[in-house]
Each structure stands twice: as C-alpha cells, then as structure tokens.
Amino acid sequence: MDKLYIGIRAEDKSYWERRTPIPPHDCKYIMEKHPQIQMVVQPSTKRIFTDEQYLEVGCLVQEDLSQCKGIVCIKEIPLDKYIEGMTYLHWSHTIKAQPHNMPALDMMLKKNIRHLDYERIYDEKGVNTTAFPYAGIAGIITFLNEYGKYLLKRDIATPFLQIGPTYQYFNKKDAYQALSVAGQAIQERGLPKEAGLPIIIGVLGSTGLCGKGSMEALSNLHVTLVKPSELKELVNTPNDPKHRKTVYVCPFKTTDLVRHQEDYDKEFTSSDYYNHPNQYTPVFHTKYLPYLTIIVNDIYWDHKFPRYITNSQMRDLVQSGKSRLQAVCDVTCDMEGSIQFLKKYTTPDNPVYFYEPISESIHDEFDAKSPKDIMYMSIDFLPSQLPYDASIDFGIALRDIVPHLAYSDSNKPLEESGLPVFLQNATITLHGQLTHKFQYITHLRNINDQLKEAESFQPKKALKKIPSYLAIRLTGHLFDTGAINKILSVVQSGCKFNIVDIQAGQSDNQQTSCLLQLYSKNKGQLMDEVDKVIQLCETLDIQVETE
C-alpha cells in the first residue's frame, strides 16, 4: 500500500519561532495508529525538538515536502513557499480580511490551495481546540524580568531580578521555579518602600484563556489575591508592614470595567454588553486605575467596545497626582485599543518602551529625568517564548486531526472530501475559491478597498446630511450561516452601502454585530431596499435595529 505523506514545515517567519505543531512523540503516535501515514519533517537547527529526535521515531527529515498530501505548520507562510495544489493547516490571519495578509489569501487561491485554519477549529462545545494560555504565561515571566530591571534603573533592587526572560527557560516548570524563588525572597526579605508600596497588579480579562495563564503564572510568585473593592483601603494604608512582604493581585472581570449608560442598577451580562457595547460607558479609569501599580491586559477587545484607558484619562490622572501606575504588561496587544497608549509592538530583543503620559510621547530607553514614564511591554508573539510547552499542547490537539488531511480527497467538493464537519468548517479555500462559510471575506475586502479609495467619505456625520440615508445594525450568526453574503447581495443590487464595525464572532456560537449604512439618490428606492433587507433578515433569524 502506498504511503500517505504528511509534512511539517520548518517555521521561518521569525528567528524567535521555535515551536512545532507536532512533536516527535506525537508523530510516532500518528504513524503507529495509522501505518499508512508517513510523517516528513523539514530540517531545522532552531526548533525545540531536534531533527535527530524526529528520525528516532521514524520520521523522514528532508527539505522537499511536495509529495505530501498535507502540510502542517504554525505561523504564516512566505508567498513563494506555497506549493501548488497543497493542503495547508496553519494560522493565516485572513478570516477578517486583514489587509496585510490578503496577498497570502490571493496566493492560496491562485495556487489552488486547500487551506484549513486553526482559528476555526472548534469542538462540539464551541471551544477552539488550538487555543492555549501561553501568551498570558510567557507575558508575566518576561514582564517581571523587565520590571525588576526597571526598578533597578531607579536604584531599587528587588527579588524580581532573580526572574529571567521567558525564553531563558526550557519549559514553564523551570520558569515557575524561578518565580517561586523570587516570591519566597519577597516574603523573607521584603520589598523596599521606595518601590511604591503596596505593589498591586491588576489583571484585566482574568477569566479568559490568556488571563487564566497570567493568573497561573502569578500564583507561583506567592501573591495575595484581593478584590477590586479592597484596593482603596490597601492604598490608604501605605505603612502597613504586610505590604513589604506581599505582592497583591486583583483580577478584574468585564463587569468591573463598564456600567450601563442609563440604567446604573442594571445587572451586567456579557451577552448584553457584547451585543450592545454602545450602551455602556467605561468606569475602570476612575474606580480602580488610581490604585494600581501594574496592569496586565489580557482582555479581548475590538473597536466596537469602549477603551478602558484613554490617553487623556491617563494624562488627567497623572496631572492630578492620583496615578500610581508604573508599568503595563499588554498580552492581547491591540494597537491603540483597550489601552490607547499601546503605540508600538515590541520584541524579546527589546521588550519594553516608555510612555510619557503628559506629552503622549514614547521612547525606547529608560530616562531617569522622566519620572512619570510608564513602562510598556507589548510583545505580540508571546507563545513562541515557551516553545516546548506550546508544542506539546499543539501535538495533543492535532494528532487525531492530522490523519484526516491524509485520508481526505482535496479534489472533491468539500462535503464529499472525507473531512469531518468540524474541519470542513475550518476550510477557507478550496479549488481556487473561498468556501461557502468564508465568502464574506470578499465583501469585507471590497469594503476595505472602498474605504481606502474614498478616505474623504465620513460615514456617520456626512451621511446624516443626506436625506436618503439609513443605518441599521444587524446582529446574529451573520458569517457562519452565510447570511452576510445574502444580505450584501440584496444591498448591492439597489443602493450603495458602507459597513462600520463589522466583527466576525470568535466562535460559531458567538453572534456578529455590524452597522450597515445605506444611501441612495432616491429615498423611495432606499426604503424599498431596506424593506427587502428587513424581510430577508426575518427569514435568516438576524436581528435588525435602526440607528
């Protein structure tokens, strides 16, 4: 019986990327369970597992992967490395029509690639099986290393100096041992009052995947957990002797960050906030930010949500003398997002920059003459700093998925290809086209092109001056059901349109909300088209609200 070959690419996006999607022992598991499958691995001298370890379990190690039925990797692939007609499983970062990755999508379409994306692989409970907490874990370790150096530059020595950068450790067990030793040293020798006691670390998004990783890492520092309601009393007792031997950690949930604009007593629910974020106003910057020494930002955010800290809020707090904030560890890394003064991404080579909140300027080096500076860490590929643990979990997640790539037939229609439904749902391109669930990407690209070509167009304010204008908010399963394709097809036939704040849900179980702006020279024609959209949405179970 002929062998079915599955390839593993050598990661080449960054020299820091040492992960592998399938470790040697999981290759062995696959080949023993599926004797017809032969794993083929591209050689690499930087990968966390050596070529020799792959050879020992029976893998082939060679550059050429062209005979493989499928190729598995982690990060994006250089455009010239795509193999015609190949099946690829990796993160492409294209499902939201991200402009910088559209050339890769075009190349996959041009080369007839069958592309499956980790971002859309969900189990029966709607959980992404290839999402892990390592960004939160790695972020804490490297941040504490940088925080120790930051304090030392202020002539303050602390046990944080005993913690190295994440990439220094083989695995998280070794890193956690260093955190534990530093935590014990704090309990035994204490922290100098010059560090600004009490040291309080606030973790935003503490219940999410990244947040859980950060909380796990911090627990190894032997911290003391406190509630948001306890912060004021802690800060108002600066001479409490407990502060010298304690690092306090305060987990924050979304309910701590915002309140309803009109109904102050309304019980907070995540679903209401996610579906109607414009009805909420941020309160974190006034209620809790004045008490924090450090912020760890693990919260999911996109542009439909309010910012939790703006530049002006931070400036006002500093000018009033009420800010204690020394540093930010931004794990989610949304550029000028939930924390507006995230101004640049950093790297493990240069992990931090410094933000001066009065002038709103940034600089790369510590300046002792600028005491109001806030140290900011914003490494946007943190999981690569724990390549061993991340690879182990990847292997567990993928070892029963990868054989489907070998046994399925990419030449057949998706539904007849032999892929299970959950992998069909993760297939973005096939036979030189976007699959049904991802045809909305074309519409999003067109929208991006329209906005780029007509930058003078100001949707909300300008369009309100035009009589034949109406904005409607659509909420529901727009993408995973193909509803967005049908709605935009109706719109395109009768009027011009624009879309503001369109967000693909993070999973098939989450709804999408977008603002659809319609305009026409003829008001009657516009209203006819709106009626068509509303009628269609009723059949598609899509909620419609006029703005």
UniProtKB/TrEMBL annotation:
<protein>
    <recommendedName>
        <fullName>Alanine dehydrogenase/pyridine nucleotide transhydrogenase N-terminal domain-containing protein</fullName>
    </recommendedName>
</protein>
<dbReference type="GO" id="GO:0005737">
    <property type="term" value="C:cytoplasm"/>
</dbReference>
<dbReference type="Pfam" id="PF05222">
    <property type="entry name" value="AlaDh_PNT_N"/>
</dbReference>
<dbReference type="InterPro" id="IPR051168">
    <property type="entry name" value="AASS"/>
</dbReference>
<feature type="domain" description="Alanine dehydrogenase/pyridine nucleotide transhydrogenase N-terminal">
    <location>
        <begin position="7"/>
        <end position="138"/>
    </location>
</feature>
<dbReference type="Pfam" id="PF04455">
    <property type="entry name" value="Saccharop_dh_N"/>
</dbReference>
<dbReference type="GO" id="GO:0019878">
    <property type="term" value="P:lysine biosynthetic process via aminoadipic acid"/>
</dbReference>
<keyword id="KW-0560">Oxidoreductase</keyword>
<dbReference type="InterPro" id="IPR007545">
    <property type="entry name" value="LOR/SDH_bifunc_enz_cons_dom"/>
</dbReference>
<dbReference type="InterPro" id="IPR007886">
    <property type="entry name" value="AlaDH/PNT_N"/>
</dbReference>
<dbReference type="GO" id="GO:0004753">
    <property type="term" value="F:saccharopine dehydrogenase activity"/>
</dbReference>
<keyword id="KW-0520">NAD</keyword>
